[in-house]
Specification:
Blueprint: H1 12-15, H2 23-30, E1 38-43, H3 47-57, E2 62-68, H4 72-79, E3 87-89, H5 92-96, E4 103-106, H6 113-122, E5 126-129, H7 137-149, E6 154-156, H8 164-174, E7 202-203, H9 211-215, E8 223-224, H10 241-247
Parallel strand pairs: 1-2, 1-4, 2-3, 4-5, 5-6
Antiparallel strand pairs: 7-8
Helix pairs in contact: 6-7
Domain Gfo/Idh/MocA-like oxidoreductase bacterial type C-terminal: 196-240
Keywords: Oxidoreductase
EC number: 1.1.1.18
């Protein structure tokens, strides 16, 4: 697929029909047999994505068959960690359209989660999407609606909620260890250690980065080195901020 990305194409309202043309073929491919390995496609294979690749690879009933990242260097590096040859692309639509992909793992910046997850559900793919689920409440509700409409299995990466430590603390509070809890407040003040994300001038993006695809549904703007790849978490346009990122892990 070589179509240039147009931001009007990425509205959540239209995302649920974004890949419907592939839904029938994908559903047929999934019907091959319940005992086969789950064929995974990963969208976003840098920091968290590479960790998830390693975690899924430890399961004998999973097989990584496709990778997507807007940074060609990151994509090449990730492919070296997969035993077999994998399909590679910088456009997630190419990955979702594939008939040999059963489920999608999404580890992209927050502003991409809704569009990619809804598109995957519409294409009859199950989904694992990293937390936070979405950047806005509206997007989150649209994702839940899509999962129900297309009857997909969708899991959000809030795995720390399953930690025995937090489970025990939650139970102790319910048992009255702290008495009647009326108010709970939490604060998270952070900047990237050791000296913050800094100030960077606008510049041309690195040749190995598809900056237009990185921006996706957000307004077009010049590249800045203190936005991508990881520092987007301190920019409201691309992230629901660090409090939402970490706070959802600890609520029970």
């Amino acid at each position: 697929m070589t179509d240039k990305i147009h931001r009007r194409d990425f509205q959540v309202k239209a995302a649920s029909t974004f890949v419907l043309s592939a839904a029938t073929a994908a559903a047929s491919a999934r019907a091959a047999g319940a005992n086969e390995r789950i064929r995974l496609g990963f969208i976003g294979v840098a920091n968290r994505g590479s960790q998830l690749m390693k975690a899924f690879a430890e399961h004998s009933d999973c097989q990584i068959v496709a990778l997507c990242d807007v940074d060609s260097q990151t994509l090449t590096k990730a492919a070296t960690n997969v035993a077999q040859t994998t399909f590679q692309t910088d456009d997630f639509r190419n990955l979702i359209d594939r008939e040999d992909v059963d489920a999608i793992v999404i580890a992209t910046p927050d502003h991409w989660h809704a569009i990619q997850a809804i598109s995957a559900c519409a294409a009859s793919k199950d989904v694992y999407v990293e937390k936070p689920l979405s950047a806005t409440i509206h997007e989150g509700r649209a994702m839940v609606d899509a999962a129900r409409k297309y009857k997909r299995v969708v899991q959000v990466g809030t795995h720390r909620r399953s930690s025995p430590l937090y489970a025990e603390l939650s139970e102790r509070v319910r048992e009255g260890l702290l008495g009647k809890v009326c108010v709970s407040r939490a604060y998270r003040l952070s900047n990237m250690a050791p000296s913050g994300i800094g100030k960077e001038p606008t510049s041309s993006p690195p040749e190995h980065l598809n900056w237009d695809m990185w921006l996706g549904p957000r307004a077009k703007r010049p590249y800045q080195a203190n936005i991508a790849p990881y520092k987007f978490r301190w920019w409201q346009d691309y992230s629901s901020q660090m409090g939402c990122k970490d706070g959802i892990l600890r609520r029970r």
